[in-house]
Amino acid sequence: MTKRFRIAPWILLPFILFSGVAWASSEPKLILQETFGVHPAVFNYSEYEYNGNTVSVIRSDPRFFDFAVACAKPPKSVSQFHNENPSAMFTLNGGYWDQDYVPTDLCVVDGKVIKPVNTANSHFGLFAVRRNGELVIGDLKRKPLSQVDVNDFRYALKSGPHLLRKGAPVEFKSSSSHSRTVLGKDVQNNVLFVITKLGKMTYSEMIRFIMDSGLGMADAFNLDGGASSGFALGKGDDIVLKDTVRIANVIQLTLKQPR
Fold first, then answer.
1. Please, what is the average pLDDT of the chain?
2. How many domains does the chain have?
3. Residue 23 included in any domain
4. pLDDT tens digit string along 196-211?
5. Residues 6 or more apart whose Cβ sits within 8 Å of residue 172
C-alpha cells in the first residue's frame, strides 16, 4: 500500500514567501525618471531597483550633444571635473589608469594623444569623437589595433570588456562584484550610460539588468569601475551625484546650443 504524506501549510509558507521575494527582485523596478528640462526623446535619466542595487540609466540622443574626454594630472574626483566645467550637463568616469594616473589604453584629448593604443590589451570598446564631430562607439575586436587612426580623433577612450555585442550577451566566469559603469548604444543609436549608483554587481548581473530592463542596447562595454565608478548630472540643487575617488579621466556631455 502506498503511503501518502501531507505537508503542513505552515512548513511550506517560508518557501513560498522566499520564492516570491526572489522572483520579484529579479525584475528591474523603475523608481525615478527625470529629464532635467530637456525633451525626454533627447535626454532621459532613470533609476531602477534591481536585486538590492540601485542602477542609474542615462539615455541621450547624440545629435543634440557635444561629447568630450577630459584628463587631469593631478587627478580629480568626478564632482571636481563636473564643477570645473560649467557647460557640462553630465560627467562620467572614463577608462582605466595606472598607479601614476596615466591611462592604460588609448586616450585622446583635444586632438592630443595622451596614451596610444595598447595592442596588448584585450579590451576592444572604443568611444571616440572624430575631428569632424562624428561620434563613434565601436568594437575593435576584429580590426587590427595597429590600424586604428588616432590622428582622426579629437577625443577617444578605449576600454572594456564588452558585455553585449550586436545585442547578444557575452559570457563571463568571473564572480567578482563591484560598482559598474557601462557605455553603449541602442538600436536607435542613442548613447546609453548604465551605472551602479548603489551596490555592487558582477558582469553577468549587469548584463541581466540590461537585458531584463528592456533598454534595447545593441552594444555595451565596461568603463572603469569600483571606487572609480561615478557620475554627476545637472547643476546646483538639482544635481544627481555619485562621487568617485580621484580619477584620471572622464567623459562629458554638453547640450548643443541652438544656432
1. 90
2. 1
3. no
4. 999 999 999 999 999 9
5. 161, 202, 203, 204, 207
What's the CA gap between 111 and 106, in Å, rounded? 12
| Cα 65–chain centre separation | 17
**Cell numbers standing for residue 63:** 545629435
pTM: 0.89
> Residues 115, 106: contact at Cβ < 8 Å?
yes
Give Cα 156 distance to the centre of its chain.
16
Q: Is 169 exposed, middle or buried (0-12, 13-18, 19+ CB in 10 A)?
A: middle
Domain span holding position 138: 30-255
Cα angle 162, 165, 168; round to 5: 115
In a domain, residue 3? The reply is no
- Give a yes or no: residue 19 inside a domain: no
In a domain, 51, yes or no: yes
Q: How far apart are CA 66 and CA 211, in angstroms?
A: 28
**pLDDT on residue 258:** 77
pLDDT 10s digits, 164-189: 999 999 999 889 999 999 999 999 99
Q: What is the rounded CA–CA span in Å between residue 204 and residue 26?
A: 13
